[in-house]
Amino acid sequence: MSDFKIPATMTAVLLTGHGGLEKLEYRTDVTVPTPAAGEVLIRVTAAGINNTDINTRIGWYSKAVTGDTNSGGARGFESAENDDASWSGTPLQFPRIQGADVSGTVVAVGEGVDSARIGERVLVRTMMPIDDNFNCITFGSERDGGFAQYTTAPSEHTLPVNCDWSDVELASIPCAYSTAEGMLHRAGVGAERVLITGASGGVGSAAIQLAKRRGAHVIAQTAPAKADLLTELGADQTVDRNADLVEILGKESVDVVVDLVAGPKWPELLDVLVRGGRYVASGAIAGPLVELDVRTLYLKDLTLFGSTYQPREVFENLIRYIEKSEIKPFVSGSWPLSDIHKAQEAFLSKAHAGKLVLIPPSE
Fold this sequence. Notes:
Elements: E1 9-15, E2 24-31, E3 39-48, H1 51-58, E4 103-109, E5 121-124, E6 127-129, E7 136-138, E8 150-154, E9 158-160, H2 167-171, H3 174-187, E10 193-196, H4 202-213, E11 217-222, H5 227-233, E12 237-240, H6 245-249, E13 254-259, H7 266-271, E14 273-281, H8 294-299, E15 303-306, H9 312-323, E16 331-336, H10 340-349, E17 355-359
Parallel strand pairs: 10-11, 10-13, 11-12, 13-14, 14-15, 16-17
Antiparallel strand pairs: 1-2, 3-4, 3-8, 3-17, 4-5, 5-9, 6-7
Helix pairs in contact: 3-4
């Protein structure tokens, strides 16, 4: 048991509705949550920033929105409809504490949870499966997340981690790396040629490491200014994000496309896939609507995967990779939680490579 004294109130950022940065309200008088049966209370030491946090805030998941993420990243989308503007497609409950990425320490447990868990250093599973039928909830969306000093999570989805990484480094892992690993798992990536779009972001840079771990030859699409960083991460080749992929790589030259971008250049991704190739998507930062020539799909015997739901082993494998030093963190910068507006503006600028992380007050 711990002698740690849990306060009655905490600092947190409340999302008060869909919209611009003004919808993120920094507060110092939020009630510390109490863990329910089967849950743990976590003192948050760091929380990463993700596209999903911003997409949820601005209502980008609404089918009424057709633009790219950045066009509404700071101010939101007037066209967004609250009924389908969340990750799950059901109305979000406000106020909500966002933050899909959490590293921290267990400081209390609910009924039915072994008190020996108190004191564990943990990461929280971002995508929490409800069943085996692709139903899940997202931490920081369907339940409160990590943009706070304390948060609760189901004990079964709160995994201990033993390593010498800093709290900020650990907080860079849950959402981005599980999304990337989930995509590679879904597409069955092995020792083959893999093209990763949006490769300098959190998910893309994670996918480079995780695909290399599987023995893949990795081609990373990115801005030229970030190419050297991605080569250091393990990319075998980098390609300008504005380049003609067929001209640079050649037709039918890639076994798997890991796509986080979509947008107007999307048809090129199918053109460079080999016959029988696989395409997997878990993002569309350049725009969700694309032009598909169905003849390309069936004449080349392609397989297209969407990737959101993650089998339990995906996150458990990530913990193992960390503890065996098979992956490394890729953090660009960190901000105090009070600077969440500045941090999200920096995220939206796409000037960085890797993850950005928020740090709540220590007490």
